[in-house]
Please model this.
Amino acid sequence: MSKKMTVACLGLGGMGGGLAHRLCELGWAPVVWNRSAHRAVDFAPVASRIAATPADAADGAEVALISLADEKAVEAVLFGPDGLAEALKPGAVVIDASTVTPAFSRDVTRRLAEIGVGRVEANVIANPAQARGGDARVFAAGEPETVARVREVLVALGRQLVELGAIGTASTMKLVLNSLLGAQLVSLAEAVSYGEKAGLDRDLLLRTIADSAFSSPVMSYRCGVMREERYDRPTFRAELMGKDLRFAVGDAAGHGLELPVIATAERRYQALVDSGRGGLDAAAILLQQLTDGGARNDGQA
Ligand SMILES: NC(=O)c1ccc[n+]([C@@H]2O[C@H](COP(=O)([O-])OP(=O)(O)OC[C@H]3O[C@@H](n4cnc5c(N)ncnc54)[C@H](OP(=O)(O)O)[C@@H]3O)[C@@H](O)[C@H]2O)c1
Model:
């Protein structure tokens, strides 16, 4: 049997932790690194080692799998002091599962190419538990030769690998899908608050919506989070939902397109972040709706 590629996993939050666990369960024994050290501790029995810095994690790695909150985090981990770019060897490949804009993605890929390091977008459609269980769908994009070089890792990350094309296409697909999710959750919160204000029971409303043909697996899941008020155990933080909508609106604007519904939804998530609740699950948009009554936080008050 051929030897597995040596992999470093950086960013062990909900999604990054799920993907790293998945690789561990398949016998990969990656090197792991996380900015806050406590999140790496769980991996001590299964990782080959816990690295002190991204550059340390890069030592000997053929592949660096990163799953980081946002563009600032990706910039810091790749190009900051003790960053990956300082230490990855030419020929190594960064698999980036972070949701960023297509423009940022292309720029980062170009800068890594200047030092001989490849980069593949690997946008994940799953929640962290699904990722951990190998149930993620992975949309990959990049130079065909680079994607081929790391295909064994991409395949291991989930149940389905879809290869889209040039860098930027997987980011775009992810932003398209999360635009739907973000807008659905805002409309769910508004519909529930309306029904409740008009005299219906909230639990009955959420159960009825979840069971209806107007629901979807992800709506149904969020109805459960809302019913049980499990906002403080986020599978996808409200702040990240808002980020993705902002990225979609900005990218669409670059194509001369307005997305008024998505833009309004983005402002609702921003209001949630501004109220100090961005770390809660995205379903907490219902709290925002119930507390401000959907007050005119759309910039037109
Ligand atoms: N959760 C999902 O369902 C899901 C699905 C698909 C894609 N995604 C995307 O995957 C990425 C990770 O999401 P997540 O849910 O795992 O988020 P998360 O649980 O909030 O984890 C974020 C990770 O980024 C790290 N980080 C943040 N800022 C950093 C910085 N300046 N320098 C270094 N590390 C930094 C965090 O480190 P600390 O632990 O030190 O804070 C943590 O490891 C995001 O781009 C998200 O949009 C998420």
Residues 206 and 223 are 5 Å apart (CA to CA). The beta strands are 7-10, 31-33, 49-50, 63-66, 93-96, 118-125, 137-141, 160-165. The first strand starts at residue 7 and ends at 10.
